[in-house]
Amino acid sequence: MSVLTGRAPRGALLLTLPAIAVLLLVMAVPFGVIVLRSFAEPVPGLANYVWFFQTPVNLTVLARTFTIAFWVTACCVLVAYPYAFAMSIAGPRLRLALIMCVLVPFWVSGVVRTLAWVILLQDSGVINRILLALGFEKVRLIRTQLGVTIGMTQVLLPFMIMPLYAVMRGIDLRLLQAARSLGAHPVKSFFQIYLPLSLPGVFAGATLVFILSLGFYITPLLLGGPQSTMLSTLIQQQVLSLLSWGRGGAMGVVLLVATFGVLALAGPFMRRSYQISGGSR
Amino acid sequence: MTGFRPGRLLLQLSCLLIAIWLVAPTLVVIPMSFADRKSLAFPPQGFSTQWYANFFSNPQWFGSLVVSLKIAAMVAVVATVIGTMAAIGIERLKTRAGGIIRVVLLTPMIVPGVVLAVGIYAVYLDTRLVGTWTGYVLAHTLLAIPFVVIAVGANLAVFDERLETAAASLGASRLTTFFTVTLPLILPGILSGALFAFVTSFDEVIVSLFITSPQLKTLPVQIFSSMTRDADPTVAAVGSLIFLATTLIIGLGLIIGLRRRGA
């Protein structure tokens, strides 16, 4: 009997128990409390949810949260695709440099990276100085939706590049050579062979970035203004400023449902694209 | 792919721009940290190291660094032990149940931070855990476990189980087998899991913002409140130090990894 091959599933289950206990105590119970309070405070019933869906401001913020998440995801796909492709075909030294460029910002805390964007985007910041020097007019970036989108895209980009790279690394480039030797134009062989094979990576990365964008808090809070508030900020205001646990809880439940809803919707797509690629894993 | 020159050039150019866009924005904190006036206007006028001096001499700043390092070290130990146990358990189950447990253990990575933070805050208010070491370590451990499960799981996936059978057939007990055969072989995964756990805790800000107290404050919370309060270049000095430490650690890790693979 060994630790890994032992035939005692009960022992194996026991090993996972401490992790599950932490998950229950620090995630499941807190979520349960939020759901409970959203239905129970200040009076039992659906009042908080009726309020949420009947207040125009809330609906505007909800729609904006999805819009920003969509644009951030789209930008991430467009930027990450060529980069991950280059990583997958580069030689070892260049690949190391490209990986460093992804990992260093990924590991430097999000707060520090957001601070950098505050310095860059502020009205007298670097970007506006460059624009002025080039003869353009000043653009309002900080406290706008555009500024939030730029900052979030850069912070979330590693989450798009890494899954994409993992899939692209496994694609056999000889398929492209075969297509070319059979007379296919490089553009055609890219769209008919490479792109479909890389789609699982695109779906995995896009789903991850979209979900993380929906719940983003620090970057929109520091880079955004009243006109670019996202759902997370609204939840924090309800709970910490207005001490309205019921309404804040209802908003939290809406955000949770949205997150897992997107995940459930994306699941079948990810599986289908895996089948198209012919891979079994 | 010799006939592909224009496309290749375009690819190289766009990758260069993306690489700059990934790294350069963070670099602005370095010149900013040497500003001589209390302002975040860029480029800074003059030169001074007063913000670094302020960071190391001001108890608000240096104290929060010490708190963050202590919490991160505790989280690294707790999350690595719990996460490694879970990863081994999942690998041994080899059934649907194992897969489900794995997915469930990874959820803390994707749940919206503020919802989690509000929930934890509610529970901590009732259990008097707000602003306590236990409170921080528990919350950060939850967020760090997924990284350990992934890192150790990846290592276990390439681990040859026949080695354990061989050890057992030679009369080694299960514990001896684990400590002399299994553990040394999955040690790289455990170490990288521990590093991930440390960094996850050290960087965590959303939950910490809710469960913080004036007496026990972590560094990211201190940075965040300083940024929302005034334009103090000390945040840039801290940011530069974190950036430098991160680059050194990752660079060394990658180079050692590459050397070992080459050898």
From TrEMBL, chain A:
The keyword Metal-binding does not apply. Gene3D superfamilies: MetI-like (1.10.3720.10). PROSITE patterns: ABC_TM1. Signal peptide: none annotated. Residues 62-266 form the ABC transmembrane type-1 domain. Keywords: Cell membrane, Membrane, Transmembrane, Transmembrane helix, Transport. Pfam families: BPD_transp_1 (PF00528). Its main location: membrane. The chain crosses the membrane at residues 12-39, 59-84, 96-120, 146-168, 189-218, 250-270. The keyword Ion transport does not apply. It is found in: Cell membrane. It is a multi-pass membrane protein. Belongs to the binding-protein-dependent transport system permease family. CysTW subfamily. PANTHER family: ABC TRANSPORTER PERMEASE PROTEIN, INNER MEMBRANE ABC TRANSPORTER PERMEASE PROTEIN YDCU-RELATED-RELATED. This is Spermidine/putrescine transport system permease protein.
Automatic annotation (TrEMBL), chain B:
It is a multi-pass membrane protein. The chain crosses the membrane at residues 65-88, 100-124, 136-158, 178-199, 235-258. Coiled coil: none annotated. Its main location: membrane. The keyword Cell membrane applies. Residues 65-254 form the ABC transmembrane type-1 domain. PANTHER family: INNER MEMBRANE ABC TRANSPORTER PERMEASE PROTEIN YDCV (PTHR43357:SF4). Belongs to the binding-protein-dependent transport system permease family. This is Spermidine/putrescine transport system permease protein. It comes from Ancylobacter vacuolatus. The lineage of its organism: Bacteria, Pseudomonadati, Pseudomonadota, Alphaproteobacteria, Hyphomicrobiales.
